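Technical annex, item 7. During the second reporting period the consortium partners agreed on a shared format for inverse folding records so that results from different sites could be compared directly. Each record opens with the tokenized structure and is followed by the designed sequence. A conforming record, contributed by the partner at site C, is shown below for reference.
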């Protein structure tokens, strides 16, 4: 059931296939006879240098994959010189991750309850998180058939099927028994003691009334960088920038909310052309270094890695995450060489084209 939670999508899961197929619709237009003996993939994002155009995406319930999974992801990101985003639905608290990991920490906000959201934002500011991400595409939870079939929920439900499932994965079961039941630590503090709010986040019942005026107030209250996630249209991207956002995360939530949404890589060029933001981040479907280079060519400053690094986390913990990041960097480097770019900064729209049908 844990693998299904990681791997699954919404509805008939066709969104997962569409996200991957979107990258296949673009091919490179390499330039030859260029000295690419030395290559550089470092860049700048939100005014800070990063070693590669990569960000670890905010993902929930990471301790279901590996003990203290949030911290393992954050530490691997710090070692790699890229940002890490902590989810509201993390199993470690804002403060625990801040104390346990160096590097550039971002916090992703789900608005479940207005007062609770305000408390989470204040805690992130006090814990020196540099960037706040408002996720906008979870007004209600997506229909995830695998999770419903498996009864996947937090806390884990003890059912005969669940017991059999756990017993058939003894290494995971031993880790689960020795490290205790994963909890939503951001909702287990004195500042977040509202039981109704805790129950709501467990059911992923978000505040569906949150609107543009609320985003303006959030912008006024948050002194750091503000990103808006879940945007797939140029119209919404422009409105976000008009409100004062520092950047846009073009995302369909990895195909986990609604199958029939625009594919982010296809939506990116229009958003890039119409947006005043230099800080566009692409999320959803990235699996290879070539995907990253295509996203940069189409207007992204960086991409978010979600499932990709969670596969590494599930296999080997922090070391597995570091392995995935290293593989991504190696593939980005190889792709730059093979398309005739000496740096990620040289990657532009003319290096890709739509593949002939």
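Designed sequence (site C submission):
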């Amino acid at each position: 059931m844990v693998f299904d939670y990681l791997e699954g999508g919404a509805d008939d899961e066709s969104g997962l296939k569409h996200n991957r197929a979107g990258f296949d619709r673009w091919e490179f237009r390499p330039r030859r006879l260029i000295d690419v003996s030395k290559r550089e993939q470092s860049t700048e994002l939100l005014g800070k240098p990063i070693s590669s155009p990569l960000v670890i995406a905010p993902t929930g319930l990471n301790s279901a994959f590996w003990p203290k999974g949030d911290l393992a992801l954050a530490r691997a990101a710090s070692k790699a010189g890229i940002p890490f985003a902590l989810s509201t639905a993390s199993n470690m608290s804002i403060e625990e991750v801040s104390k346990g990991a160096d590097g550039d920490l971002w916090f992703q906000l789900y608005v479940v309850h207005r007062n609770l959201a305000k408390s989470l934002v204040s805690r992130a500011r006090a814990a020196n998180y540099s960037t706040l991400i408002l996720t906008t595409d979870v007004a209600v939870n997506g229909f995830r058939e695998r999770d419903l079939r498996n009864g996947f929920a937090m806390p884990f439900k003890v059912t005969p099927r669940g017991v059999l499932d756990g017993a058939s994965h003894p290494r995971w079961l031993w880790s689960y028994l020795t490290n205790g039941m994963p909890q939503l630590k951001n909702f287990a503090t004195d500042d977040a003691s509202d039981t109704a709010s805790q129950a709501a986040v467990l059911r992923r019942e978000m505040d569906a009334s949150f609107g543009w005026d609320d985003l303006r107030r959030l912008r006024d209250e948050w002194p750091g960088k503000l990103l808006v996630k879940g945007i797939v249209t140029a119209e919404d991207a422009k409105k976000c920038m008009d409100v004062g956002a520092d950047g846009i995360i073009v995302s369909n939530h990895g195909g986990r909310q609604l199958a029939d949404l625009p594919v982010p890589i296809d939506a990116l060029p229009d958003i890039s052309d119409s947006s005043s933001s230099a800080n566009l981040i692409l999320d959803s479907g990235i699996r290879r270094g070539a995907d990253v280079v295509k996203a940069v060519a189409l207007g992204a400053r960086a991409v978010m890695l979600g499932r990709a690094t969670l596969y590494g986390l599930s296999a080997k913990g922090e070391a597995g995450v570091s392995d995935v990041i290293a593989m991504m960097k190696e593939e980005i480097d190889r792709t730059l060489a093979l398309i005739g770019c000496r740096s990620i900064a040289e990657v532009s729209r003319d290096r890709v084209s739509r593949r002939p049908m």
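DSSP finds 15 helices and twelve strands in the chain. The radius of gyration is 20 Å. All partners now use this format for quarterly exchanges.
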